[in-house]
What does this fold into?
Amino acid sequence: MAVHTEVPHTEVPHTAVSSRAPYAAPIAVAITGASGVQYGLRLIECLVGAGHEVYVMISKAAHRVIAVETDIELPAQPDRLAQDLTARFGAGEEQISCFGREDWMAPVASGSGNWQALVICPCSTGTLSAVACGASNNLIERAADVALKERRQLILVPRETPLSAVHLDNMLKLTHMGAVMLPAAPGFYHRPDSVEAMIDFIVARILNQLGIAQTLMPRWGD
Ligand SMILES: Cc1cc2nc3c(=O)[nH]c(=O)nc-3n(C[C@H](O)[C@H](O)[C@H](O)COP(=O)(O)O)c2cc1C
It folds into this structure.
């Protein structure tokens, strides 16, 4: 890391997180192997559209679910995945970075890394349980552990039904730790006329949580 000794200490800006220009603060998105991978992919697209740098992690099971639920073919290798997502979502140069299961050198592996929030979307019950007990056995679990210890925003989008006592216990535990449980449970009061509208319902809620302006869904009362 470059040290700018010519800048007096008092002039260092107080922004908590800065990003590589010209992008807004990096947001990490992890897609795990629960149903509803479309939520995660749409979220990445919206974060790119909002000008954020995006760090992407996709678990092995999520790649399997993507193959089952969509016609999208995504490469597993992180560099090729980043190229694919960059082209797919019209992202800028180096706006999207992808990291593998054991890429411990990734920014999300450390509290000193430059990133603002982690969204696990969708979140499998397996990853939910690993995060609740601090397993840190792969990069997604480690990033969640870092978010909790650093008091950074951690948003989990679990998808399972019905929920067992184990699932509910883990959700309550994580809520008490400061994580936000945002289940993949779209409402119907906006009368969605497509699957895309139902996906956007959830993605809009995530963007609202992150404080990122969105036009996918009007806020209640607007
Ligand atoms: C097509 C498909 C759909 C699945 N749906 C769910 C689901 O909705 N919720 C869930 O918790 N697990 C679901 N699973 C099981 C998880 O993928 C599995 O538990 C996996 O170990 C999760 O690993 P990960 O958390 O590392 O991604 C599904 C698996 C497949 C293949």
